[in-house]
Design brief:
The chain is mainly beta. Helices cover 6% and strands 41% of the residues. The chain has two domains: 104 residues, no CATH class; 134 residues, Immunoglobulins (Immunoglobulin-like).
């Protein structure tokens, strides 16, 4: 079993980032890792841009240093046998400290939780490298397009469009680890179907009471021509992910997801005077069953 040691344990090598002593044959998750080939401490390859202000470090649950364990704690030792990939894992407690602060000390963050890999520093870096691609492949619902009025509107009048989008959460398995992803909509792009595109911008719009239909809003659009159009909404989502109930980490890029096209029919309004009503002339324009021109 690979043992995790805290920054204050071991006695063979000194590390400037964590400010503690280390055993060269141990692995660490955080700002630095032991490189057996270089025979020195090296910075962990991030695999992706890391915007998180903290460093994180897993330590074996109940471990006191060396070969010593807390006997009382062992009574609640987390069972990490038979993980998602059928292999046994390691019960760990997560610690964190602010990144780039030399005097900062490690403080307990979360756990205990299970880590399922012989070399957790490798699997976390690999997940970080793949998380953006995984995020973009999730079945994230971009939201629905709502139009006021709908399904018909008038040429030259402001049609209020808004998005019905919300935060979504997903649980996936990556490299045998349980990964929890939270996706939050942050920007919206509107393609109104007549060649007009608005965005990306942060407003999802909102509904208007019926007596205010026709007012200009942040996301409304006035069509210059009559016809049938398909309105497409593209929502940009920002995400975070956590591994095995560990601390939430930011996903560096955004994911773009498109909602199903929403049809809108644009009509023109005309005013005509008639000498007869529909009782006298059932075939007159505007009478039931008689097609009206656009």
């Amino acid at each position: 079993m690979t043992l995790f040691v805290s920054p204050a344990q071991g006695a063979d090598s000194q590390d400037p980032e964590f400010g503690g002593a280390w055993k060269p044959d141990t692995l660490q998750v955080g700002g630095w890792i032991w490189d057996g080939v270089a025979n020195d401490f090296v910075r962990q390859a991030p695999g992706a841009t890391n915007l998180d202000p903290n460093l994180y470090n897993p330590e074996l649950q109940c471990h006191l240093g060396g070969g010593e364990f807390d006997s009382v704690c062992l009574g609640d030792f987390l069972d990490c046998r038979n993980g998602p990939d059928g292999k046994d894992g390691y019960p760990v407690v997560w610690y964190s400290k602010p990144r780039g602060v030399p005097s900062a000390v490690w403080a307990r963050h979360s756990g205990p939780t299970c880590l399922y890999d012989e070399k957790p520093v490798d699997v976390l870096a690999r997940i970080a490298a793949q998380i953006q691609q995984q995020f973009e492949s999730l079945p994230i619902n971009a939201g629905a397009v709502v139009a006021q009025p709908s399904p018909n509107t008038l040429r030259g009048a402001e049609t209020n469009f808004y998005a019905d989008a919300s935060e979504q959460q997903f649980d996936v398995t990556m490299l045998g680890q349980k990964v929890h992803v939270v996706a939050t909509p942050v920007q919206y792009t509107w393609n109104y179907g007549d060649g007009t595109v608005f965005g990306p911008q942060p407003s999802m719009g909102g509904p208007l009471p019926q007596d205010r239909w026709g007012e200009k809003t942040r996301t409304s659009h006035a069509y210059a021509d009559t016809g049938d159009f398909q309105v497409v909404l593209t929502s940009s989502f920002q995400g975070t992910y956590s591994v095995n109930n560990g601390p939430p980490l930011p996903i560096p890029g955004q994911g773009q997801f498109s909602a199903p096209p929403a049809p809108i029919s644009v009509w023109r309004s005309i005013t005509r005077n008639y000498a007869d009503d529909c009782n006298q002339n059932p075939q007159g324009q505007g009478c039931p069953g008689v097609a009206s021109p656009r």
